[in-house]
């Protein structure tokens, strides 16, 4: 029997509407994108780490940076993120794919690994995430989907579901088998994603305190709970209720 493979696919493009170019912004001496790639590479139960960006020439710098960081690069339609994911898993076959977004530089490899471990323990699950019941800070969102289900979505998903990739899955628990990683303490009021200049200031403050190494989510939460001045930097940013960016 062939080994079960789980690849990571990181979506990124430069044409963000709220904060253009955010994935290549410097953070602690490296790009935001490189933080995400490094976290995936340090996740012990992942196989190939793939960057899925568009084939638009404006995203050439994203592809170049990902390759420099050691990720495999797959390019596809600018406005069809789901199609990019399907292309990635067809070019690099696997049984399940972990979806990460490139504007979440503080991903914790332990959280990613936990999501993967839940699925590896029960590969009949269609989707596993840490946000269907949200307890982790926003910006640590991790999800896994079976490739067969992803291929199905490529055939049936329309509209916003093609942008958000998995939203047509986890919103239908009567159709798809979904599992979750749910920590005991609720820290979902904290925000460490990058979508605004206020977010950037908070992330810079976190890295100034914790350094350039990948932080654990526990260390991140401990810092933010001890530093309400940091939390206040982006406390007024409106949260996106969809766990994507």
Automatic annotation (TrEMBL):
<dbReference type="GO" id="GO:0005829">
    <property type="term" value="C:cytosol"/>
</dbReference>
<dbReference type="InterPro" id="IPR029044">
    <property type="entry name" value="Nucleotide-diphossugar_trans"/>
</dbReference>
<dbReference type="InterPro" id="IPR003329">
    <property type="entry name" value="Cytidylyl_trans"/>
</dbReference>
<protein>
    <submittedName>
        <fullName>Spore coat polysaccharide biosynthesis protein SpsF</fullName>
    </submittedName>
</protein>
<dbReference type="Pfam" id="PF02348">
    <property type="entry name" value="CTP_transf_3"/>
</dbReference>
């Amino acid at each position: 029997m062939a080994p079960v493979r789980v690849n990571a696919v990181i979506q990124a493009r430069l044409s963000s509407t709220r904060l253009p170019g955010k994935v290549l912004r410097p953070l602690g001496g490296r790009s935001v994108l490189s933080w995400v790639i490094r976290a995936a590479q340090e996740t012990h139960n992942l196989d190939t780490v793939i960057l899925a960006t568009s084939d638009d020439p404006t995203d050439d710098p994203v592809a170049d940076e990902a390759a420099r960081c050691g990720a495999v690069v797959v390019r596809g339609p600018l406005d069809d993120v789901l199609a990019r994911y399907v292309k990635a898993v067809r070019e690099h076959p696997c049984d399940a794919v972990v979806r990460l977004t490139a504007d979440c530089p503080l991903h914790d490899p332990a959280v990613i690994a936990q999501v993967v471990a839940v699925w590896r323990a029960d590969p009949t699950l269609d989707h596993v995430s840490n946000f269907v019941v949200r307890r982790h800070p926003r910006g640590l969102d991790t999800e896994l989907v079976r490739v067969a289900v992803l291929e199905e979505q490529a055939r049936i998903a329309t509209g916003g579901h093609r942008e958000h990739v998995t939203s047509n899955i986890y919103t239908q628990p009567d159709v798809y088998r979904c599992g979750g990683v749910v920590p005991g303490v609720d820290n979902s009021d904290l925000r460490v994603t990058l979508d605004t200049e206020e977010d950037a200031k908070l992330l810079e403050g976190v890295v100034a305190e914790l350094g350039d190494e990948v932080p654990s989510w526990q260390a991140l939460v401990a810092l933010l709970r001890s530093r309400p001045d940091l939390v206040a930097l982006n406390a007024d940013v409106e949260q996106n209720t969809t766990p994507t960016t």
